[in-house]
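Objective 1b: paired records.
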Amino acid sequence: MSDQLRPYVVIVNNGSGCVFQPMDIQISYILTAKHNLVDEDDHLNMLTRFEQNGGNWIPREIPFEPLEIGQNYFPHPQLDIAIITVPRIHEVNSIYRSDELNEQMNPGYNLLGYPATRRQANLDNKSLWFRSDAITQILGQNNNAREFTIAGNANQEEVTGQSGGPILILQQHKAMIAGIETNMARAFEENMGRAEFFPLATFDEIIAQNPDKLCELLPAHLSCFSFLMEEAFDLDAGFAQDNIAGIKAFLLHKAKLVTQSGATPHMIKKQFAKRLLIAEQKEEILQGKEIWKIWLEFITIMQIIQEKIIEDQDLEALFNTVRLLHSDSDKDWSSELTNIVYSDYLGLADKGTVVISTRKPPASDDQYIIHGNIPQIASAKKLRDREKLKINEGMIFPFDHYKFVHMDYFKGKSISRKHAEYSALDTDQEYLDKLKLEYGEIFNHQRQSN
């Protein structure tokens, strides 16, 4: 795991830091401890990252200009944290925020950095300076910082040099950062391996103080749907893939129009936030690519059905007619039934459509559209907690008022599994007519009720 996280960790003078790629794709941020620079009279003498080449880690010096506060150096006025901006580091992938921390969770996080003990023992080989330390517990907040326990009860001497190092975890192949370590916990003659880190929310304060120079600590793909084009409409028809090559090209052409419409993942995220998710999903999912790839496909499909370009000002009306709810679950969507019941439907009109997105398609062909009369749903209605329902006044139960369809209906069910029906189609009008016919079962009920 440390090999996958190590490319994000950098040497900052006598301390450490972390590369964070924000939505501004021209630059990269180095998140670090302010004292790594203040102790050097605000000078940056060493800024080094590492790339893996075979079994070796090769140092790469990161180019930087002399530090100038408010230009490329942004220290927090009170806290021991800072952001340095450098030219875009293309070789490092997006890193995601991990903001939802609590004392009951099993951390699985690591403190990564370049401690002085390793530097002193390997003066001529920087690649051996790196160390990853397991975190056994994340504790409560104290004056903006969070306390945590390092495995092995490391003391100050052992941690020196890791200041500014990131608290990282690898989840579903995504690197996630909880914060930046700054010092050992303040105590007298204590040797319990306790240190402190500042969460990403404290770096948000630096961003807020420099809105003209810095952008939010969110991945670059949130700035524009064009970043998701290569992953959109990943249709699979096996040996019959050629049968759907034409319809896939047509859908990607329509998706390209979405990238030019003015709607962006960041805009949608800010406007709807957790209302985009099935209940009990973590908000940090909204940083990932999967949900926004689905949204790119969803808006594309809505443009085909409505026969118009959906602009950013159309999103509210769309959201209150056809609501997309996402879960990061890789199980069948039946396992999410309870959470679907208690998801947020406020504002969604009666007889609206709810599109459910999960990583896995439904288990069988007859489960792409679910109705309120199946036993599992009827039982959920009887046992419903009325206080937890988020539904418009006068409504009783979501499955009584809305049609529920899985997102894969519009791809796997309607296209990949009917690949032979697309093989003879050739013109854009034929593709459009075919898709509107396939999707008619879902949306005709809305037209009839309006």
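Objective 1b, second protein:
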Amino acid sequence: MIDPDHSANQYSGFLPPRFHNRPDADDVMVKTWAVDAPLADHSVPEIPAAVSLFFDLVAPAATRAGANGFALLWLDRHPHEEPGWRLSIGHVGSEDDLELAVAKPLARLVDAMTLANFECENWHMTRPLWRKRAEPVKLVFWGDFAKHARAITGHGDGASFYQPLGARLRSDHIATALPLLEDMLGDPVLKGGMGFEDALRLGIALGRAHLIESWIEAGGAEKEPYFRPMKIWHQAWLSHVLMDPAVASLAMAGTPAMPALDFAENSTPASRRAALDDLSAWLTMVFFTDEYPALRNAFVAGVQNAVWLDSDLQQYLQPQQRTEILQGLMPYCRWFLAMALYNHLGNLASGTARDDQVAFYTALVDALPELAPLGEFATQRDIEQHIIRIDAPRAASAFDTLVLPFCDLLMPRRQFDAARA
């Protein structure tokens, strides 16, 4: 297999790029204003004319100022606040530089409408707020952000690897632009192939999407506006996560095209779940086959236990549900740990264990001393007997901080012939 990071990659120049000028997300300041008076209800109104004009002017003005950033118009769907328009401007730099970069179009908007300061935080602090209450309506980029957006949405094979284009959405549709925020400011995925944690992450993404659709269905029309931000932002996150597996699949002979998510305006929880099932089947057939049992089991664990593994969802759990979900997670936690230990102790016996693996194993034993008696000649039965002595709460607390990274160190990564440069 060809190293995807190697300059001799035969697909170099034909695949979409990663965001090369990626800023530290802590350096991306996002300032938000409440625009005009609260709205009467949670229906989606027409964008005010003055706001539409602002969006026509802001990208050219900020580009002339040499800035890198974006503007997002959203509707506030907080269940305990009056609905209303919110305008967020993201900028690589300080708050003062942000306002300077968009000064002229912002001044024109202030002359036409009332703007009240709502919040000013960096990307990491703003994103959780948006996922809970922001229904995105319009998004534009400028500077390096705009260049990357054009590289993705204008790519000749875009429909093959980018979910919104595969669903035939226009390049200026909000659902087309939104995943690019994740691509430019979120954590990169599948760099250097697919590892154990990558497989788990993909499973969690699909499992989380199923849960959100179930909650929307159970809440009915009355609760749907409050779940809408979670659905939209997660669909964007899923589109971002799936981009790199889809790119990798382009170099796999005989691989069917990646199925598209359901972005239709008239989509239902049932139709969106059906699209998710098609995606899950595609991933299982292409990446998580019997040839890669560790990756397959990580993917399945993510799908089935997303409600426990995803910190964004845990706030919605009832106390009695936590115990139930914890018990469902334990077989996977024990299986993953047993698999990693068996491989590591075998490597110790053969003298092939790497220094980073040995150091990580020491940290694991410090946190879970029940494993300390295990030596390099331990059998699989020995490993299982020591693992079962670890109580469920401590095993769960070590799962994402120790067990998963240890598995990722021990399990072979699946390399790809095609990857974004």
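The chain is about 55% helix and 10% strand. The beta strands are 28-35, 69-76, 85-92, 115-122, 134-142.
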